[in-house]
Amino acid sequence: MDDRLAKKLTILADAAKYDASCASSGGPRRKAPPGGLGSTTGAGICHAYTPDGRCVSLLKILLTNYCLFDCAYCVNRRSSNVRRATFSVEEVITLTVEFYKRNTIEGLFLSSGIIRSPDHTMEQMIRVAKGLRRQHGFRGYIHLKTIPEASPWLIEQAGLFADRLSINLELPTEASLERLAPEKDGAAIQAAMGQMRERIAQAKDERRRFAPAGQSTQVIVGADASTDVSLIRTSASLYHTHALKRIYYSAFSPIPDAAAILPAKPPPLQREHRLYQADWLLRYYEFSADDVAEAAEAGMLALDVDPKLAWALKHRGRFPVDVNRADREMLLRVPGLGVRAVDRIVAARRHTRLGLADLSRLTSGLKRARPFLVAADHAPTRLTDRLDLRARLAEPPRLGEAPRPIEPPRQLALFG
Amino acid sequence: MRRAVHLAPGADLAGFRAAARRLAADDIPPEAVTWTQGDAPALFADREDAAGAAPLPLPRPVAELIAGVVQHRDPERFALLYGLIWRVLRGERHLLEVASDPLVHRLARMRKAVARDLHKMHAFLRFRRAGAAGARERFVAWFEPDHHILAAAAPFFVERFPSFDWAILTPDGSAHWDGSRLDFGPPGRREDAPASDPFEAGWCAYYASTFNPARTNPAAMRAEMPKKYWRNLPEAAAIPLLVRGASARVAEMIEREAQAPLKRVPARALAAMSAQEPASLSDLNALIRRSEPLVPGATQAVPGEGPIGAPIAFVGEQPGDQEDRQGRPFVGPAGQLLSRALAEAGLDRAQAYLTNAVKHFKFEERGKRRIHQKPSAGEVAHYRWWLDRELGFVGPRLVVALGATAVLALTGRSVPITRARGPARFDGKPYQGFITVHPSYLLRLPEAAQTDAYGQFVDDLRRVRALAEEVRG
Predict the structure, then answer these.
(1) Whether B202 and A95 lie within 8 Å, measured CB to CB
(2) Which of A33, A190, A278, A309 ranks highest by number of CB atoms within 10 Å?
(3) Rounded CA separation A75/A257 (Å)
(4) A116 and B269: CB-CB below 8 Å?
(5) Could B292 and A60 be called an inter-chain contact, meaning their C-beta atoms sit closer than 8 Å?
(6) Which domains does chain B have, with CATH numbers?
(7) CB B382, CB B294: distance < 8 Å
(8) Per residue in B232-272, pLDDT tens?
(9) Residue A68: closest CA among chain B residues belongs to which residue?
């Protein structure tokens, strides 16, 4: 690989890394045809992990980091002084194919700065995906970051070649978009998501191939004054209206050459973590956005306890729950019990009465679950009502991180 | 009576299965069996006669668990598995559902360890290029799995990389693919794999660049990518340096004050950015021509035809065989019938605009024939944006939908033609609408019915003409 290409790769991978999405999952199972290259497993594979703990599944790069837009939170905005580079369509195809052959990636995640026009940029991205599929018989995973400002016909084209399409919401409210991303338009983003949802659903009904892994989006956390509850409400509505597969929450990260409008500060990683947990409660634990709101204080999720525990602490009257009798829905509300542990409990109790030792083999979260459940040989007596229960169950602050009080985000004043 | 069973090294599933059948048939309890493994030939001739013993009636989940656990490296695995079989056959048929049982728990953990090892091998194995034989490239990988998983792991690589030759070398054995056969061979050595690869430096550069120092969390990385894998991962060499440099990089980002942009605002590019919409019908048609067909088949796009400003536009379903060959709409048999009917109704085809809801011929090849396929609702929807723009440029006062697909394209709804035939309003559209049958429908009717139907079609076109004059007035 020549130096010039390696240099571009360094710039354009660096420029793409703030997008949290990396999944290669959700697609159908495919294998390479004779002479072709690549397969998908359905579940996705992480081929490496970087020291930030995030998985490297796809070659995540920008086609170019030149951009005509000026979104304050973005390292590639036109007013930023970062180094710039542009790949040719062929270069992206070569990198994808060669990395793929070495078994370092599941496929390509392609995004781009806006050059010339949204349509022109989107067309270039589609050419990459088409070239991979047509010239190389590539059956690996392709995720295209759709440009919502591009013409609707380009979405119709992108879905032919991509497994997953996504449009980043970036900021949860129109007001924030207007302030921080002046070229973007919330209504256009929603319209494009709606169009994609319709096409993906239709194609699925008609058994045609059109973005079979569905669509996802990303919201930046901590760049504006939105509360956790308002974010979760937005998410619940997006899952509902646009049938999104995933919503990624990306803690606003300090970037090189940050805009003056946003103070650089460490990213609220714990907050991001709690939002993911709340998101999971929506998708897998039969929680509603209102339930999540009940777990929060002044619109914000607690940082010292997870949202499910926070909900349980506020609804102590619903506990303890008898693991040998309670229905699945209530077991899912028990802090510390995951979906799989609950399924195992439900299967095992058909054949035996479960005691604490049994439970310790069914879940690794027994310490947190104990005060909230009744087992054959265990009743928490006063434990559920103890005033210091929260303190006993709270996670110790992570090493090197000062404990942070629960308070609305600092930017509130800034945007007031 | 004690029994000794000797199995082949590694994941000897066939040997274990045969032995278990034999033991169960002879009613030997688990505590009376000694299991050994190795290259020495079996002391007892159990294996041969076991082939005759009846298969064990095990529930499928149990059989699957056994197939997984035999790959584990723990020498106790066979004794544990036979203990499970013994209990399942003696009344505990649903034993696996009792995940809290200590034996089930232990076996489930062993199987999970095997599954994880398999998954990590699929993830962390790295091929290096080892030249090419003719047009076929060759790649070789060295990998050290924890368990006996090579045979289970190899099919994944066959499905993924059928088009080049590859070999996977491990301390326990090797797998070789030549494009048609997967063979297993003796153990390999690290030195047998190439020492370098032309794209490895690029990959390592990518790995380093995609790391975000502001989120450094090496514990999370190690949980998923334990250190034992690092020595065979070329990118892992950079980890210590990346972690050490991270906090300084972040501190620098936070402390540096926002800088004024060095470049001027690209005013001209910004002004031009919004001018991406096709400015004319020919722009739009050029764009349709260079786009990928959204239906299968089609050799070329067939755009509409007729003067801009035509008072009447006719919208059909999709181009047919002849249209696809010539690249023009309504030139096949149905198009000729339409021309005749237009003339009889006193309409000049040259003054009208003719186009299709779907711009490509959707067909299926059967022998030498190309059989027309009706576009699905979803496919029609893919083309709607283009059709709307097209009619926007032409600006007709009256749009005639020929057949159900055209109605669907213009209204977004499925409407039975027989009921909706006649003048219509298409919601939100600036033109008057009219619905009639597609001329190809007339061609498909039995001959006896054709004359009447054709007469009605011409009548419809006469009403179209009258309506167009009305709208103009």
Answers:
(1) yes
(2) A278
(3) 7
(4) yes
(5) no
(6) 3-120 (no CATH), 125-192 (no CATH), 201-247 (no CATH), 281-472 (3.40.470.10)
(7) yes
(8) 999 999 999 999 999 999 888 888 777 788 888 888 888 88
(9) B270
